[in-house]
Structure prediction request, 103 residues.
Amino acid sequence: MKTDLSARVYAYLQRIPDGKVVTYGQIAADLGNPRLSRVIGTILHQNPDPDRIACFKVVNREGKLAENFAFGGIGAQKARLIASGVEVEDDRVDLRRYQWESD
Prediction:
C-alpha cells in the first residue's frame, strides 16, 4: 500500500525531464521536509513501476550513483542515465550541468 508521501515522491519523479537528475535531499526539501532523504531512498527501493517512474534519475548530494540501485545495480542506473542524455564519469554526474530545478 502506497503512503501519501510515496505517491508524492513517485509523482515528483515523473516530472523530471530526460537529461536531468535530482538528489534525495532535493526531493525531500521540495516535498516539504529536508530531513527525509533516507526515507526517500527507502521509497525509491519500493518503486512499483521502475520503467514508468524514473528512480534512476536520483543521485546523492555529490552526484554519485546509487551503489545499491534496486533495479539492476549501479551499472543499470548508469546505463539508463546515459540513455536519457546524462553523462556519467566515474559513477558520478555533474550536478552543475544536469541537476533539475523544479518549479
Remarks:
- The chain has one domain: 4-94.
- The chain has five helices and two strands.
- The first strand starts at residue 22 and ends at 23.
